[in-house]
Design brief:
The complex is a heterodimer.
Chain A: E1 5-12, H1 20-33, E2 38-42, H2 50-53, E3 62-64, E4 67-69, E5 71-72, E6 79-83, H3 99-111, E7 118-124, H4 131-139, E8 147-152, H5 156-172, E9 176-187, E10 194-195, H6 202-210, E11 214-220, H7 222-225, H8 232-235, H9 240-255
Parallel strand pairs in A: 1-7, 1-8, 2-6, 2-7, 8-9, 9-11
Antiparallel strand pairs in A: 3-4, 5-6, 9-10
Helix pairs in contact in A: 1-9, 3-4, 5-6
Chain B: H1 3-6, H2 35-40, H3 47-55, E1 59-66, H4 74-88, E2 94-98, H5 106-109, E3 118-120, E4 123-125, E5 127-130, E6 133-137, H6 153-166, E7 172-178, H7 185-193, E8 201-206, H8 210-225, E9 230-235, E10 240-241, E11 248-249, H9 258-266, E12 270-273, H10 278-286, H11 290-293, H12 298-315
Parallel strand pairs in B: 1-7, 1-8, 2-6, 2-7, 8-9, 9-12
Antiparallel strand pairs in B: 3-4, 5-6, 10-11
The chains are: A alpha/beta, B alpha/beta.
Main location (chain B): cytoplasm
Region (Disordered) (chain B): 1-22
Family (chain B): Belongs to the Mrp/NBP35 ATP-binding proteins family. NUBP1/NBP35 subfamily.
């Protein structure tokens, strides 16, 4: 099913809540802005965030002869999205599954979705280094995966988990495209003084120690979290976040030639 | 017992239940991803359940700290609560069990990152942070902070069973169990093993924005499906007070009413909000005791109210 997909990018982080889904959607939207056809696959089964972040809650996935038809965000079908969120009847429902069941769902997502022709497939993952990640990695062995973008926040508690994710990538042979430090500093709207709420520079230091590329630092900007399906590079072109997303996407395009 | 675990809601319509003789063999099982596991798995209740019951017999309050969402501060809130509970009364014994296998944070947050766990005749001895505060985590068993635990579910379950049945806690007033994000293996295992051990209930942690609340709603559904009493919801990172101009800002805007709104909507108790104080974040990164270091932080005040409400809900 992935024959028509030219490039596959994973978005990983050992830590939860660092902004994997936000970064995934913004990378996808930025790629669309640059004229690419993009797919976004959400393999976070217990906490799917992509349908909400793209304002696609309540949309349905359809079956066709070729497999599951993903949900498209626009008429031109430039952004295709697949998530377990589309398969739940109610947004409050929990998916209480053990590993083996999650594994087969992830496998289905990777083999049964009819993506068609795509320039990029972005895969958003849950936190950790367990079932979902092992399954994705095993199933992508036969397909070319261009690499992983790792997301972290600057504080040590988060860096510690992300180091484990880097070890995971190294052990399983997934190339690392680079590391993004998210939530690095907050500019107070009333006095414009910058506070490093979750400290600062941890991601950069980690990138240096682990010998991976630092793709950029994204400051805390509550506006970005509220874009809900609109590209940051379009809506807030002058914000530091937009600059970083552009940098990341340029780097991704460069790596994934 | 955990009837819901025996037959998940997502199972095929006529699922015979995982404990049934027909598990994996009935016609309804055809095509179910769990079929093979059901067909080959053991049918009698896990002997671990009785072991856990016995081991935790002297633990008065057993509390799970849950959140569907990652990075909302489960570990930080667990550490804050345990430190504050321990500080309230020196005769009160408090312990923290970290069942986040892939991303253990308790050793760092409680400032015992370099410690090791010892074996004794009566089981694993936890690491003591203070005279009346002990902790156990897989972090103590890793040789290097870079080591990753790349395990599928069953192996994680084995570890959790060991943690629950083989740690020599002694007499405890509070055992707080810090969990990973989600509603999967770790949570189901903990709930199954604790099913006979008289679990007091769960504290849910969230941040105010909808993308976090969305996952926490799922966790509430999980608690209801598995019959866990919800002791209350703690909203973390609710307000940020600029250290320069003392103005409040919302970092994670509560556009949908925040945790309080969600609690009213779903009829669960709300314990309180913790503001975002960068000094507390730093304290946690360095593993320092914030109660001694930052007695004036607004977090301490908020925490005090949360604990009072929590203790009340534990007693009910």
């Amino acid at each position: 099913m992935l024959e028509g997909v030219k490039h596959i990018i994973l978005v990983l982080s050992g830590k939860g809540g660092v902004g994997k889904s936000t970064v995934s959607t913004q990378i996808a939207l930025t790629l669309v802005e640059k004229g690419c056809k993009v797919g976004l696959l959400d393999v976070d089964l217990c906490g799917p965030s992509i349908p909400y972040l793209l304002q696609l809650e309540g949309k349905d996935v359809h079956q066709s002869d070729e497999g599951w038809v993903p949900v498209y965000t626009d008429e031109k079908q430039n952004l295709a999205v697949m998530s377990i969120g589309f398969l739940l009847n109610n947004r409050n429902n929990a998916v209480v599954w053990r590993g083996p069941k999650k594994t087969s769902m992830v496998k289905q997502f990777l083999t049964d979705v009819s993506w068609g022709e795509l320039d990029y497939l972005i895969i958003d993952t849950p936190p950790g280094t367990s079932d979902e990640h092992i399954t994705v990695m095993e199933n992508l062995k036969n397909v070319k995966c261009d690499g992983a973008v790792i997301v972290t926040t600057p504080q040590l508690v988060s860096i510690e988990d992300v180091r484990k994710e880097i070890t995971f990538c190294k052990k399983t042979g997934i190339p690392i495209i680079g590391l993004i430090e998210n939530m690095s500093g907050f500019v107070c709207p009333s006095c414009t003084n910058c506070t490093n709420i979750f400290s600062k520079g941890g991601g950069e230091t980690l990138a240096t120690i682990s010998n991976i590329k630092h793709l950029g630092s994204i400051p805390i900007d509550p506006r970005v979290g509220q874009l809900l399906g609109r590209a940051c590079v379009n809506e807030l072109p002058d914000s530091p976040s937009a600059k970083v997303f552009n940098q990341i996407v340029d780097k991704v395009i460069q790596v994934a030639v | 017992m955990a009837s819901i675990v025996a037959k998940p809601e997502s199972a095929p319509e006529h699922c015979p239940g995982t404990q049934s003789d027909q598990a994996g063999k009935a016609s309804a099982c055809a095509g179910c991803p769990n079929q093979q596991i059901c067909a080959t798995g053991p049918k009698e209740p896990d002997p671990g359940i009785a072991l856990v019951k016995e081991r935790l017999g002297e633990v008065q309050n057993k509390i799970l700290v849950l959140s569907g969402k990652g990075g909302v501060g489960k570990s930080t809130v667990t550490a804050l609560l345990s430190r504050a509970l321990a500080a309230r009364d020196p005769n009160q014994n408090v312990a923290v069990l970290d069942i986040d296998i892939c991303g253990p944070s308790q050793p760092r947050v409680l400032g015992v990152a370099d410690e090791q766990v010892h074996q004794s005749g009566s089981g694993w001895s936890p690491v003591y942070v203070d005279d009346n505060l002990s902790v156990m985590s897989i972090g103590f068993l890793l040789a290097s902070p870079d080591d990753a635990i790349i395990w599928r579910g069953p192996k994680k379950n084995g570890m959790i069973k060991q943690f629950l049945s083989e740690v020599d806690w002694g007499q405890l007033d509070y055992l707080l169990m810090d969990t990973p994000p989600g509603t999967s293996d770790e949570h189901l295992s903990a709930v199954t093993y604790l099913s006979q051990a008289n679990l007091t209930g769960a504290i849910l942690v969230t941040t105010p924005q909808e993308v976090a609340l969305l996952d926490v709603r799922k966790e509430i559904d999980f608690c209801r499906k598995t019959n866990i009493k919800i002791l209350g919801v703690v909203e973390n990172m609710s307000k940020f007070i600029c250290p320069c101009c003392a103005k409040e800002s919302e970092i994670f805007p509560a556009n949908t009413g925040g945790a309080r709104g969600m609690c009213e909507e779903l009829d669960v108790p709300f314990l309180g909000s913790l503001p975002l104080d960068p000094k507390v974040t730093r304290c946690c990164d360095e593993g320092k005791n914030f109660i001694e270091d930052l007695p004036d932080s607004p977090v301490i005040k908020a925490l005090d109210q949360i604990i009072t409400r929590l203790q009340m809900n534990c007693r009910d």
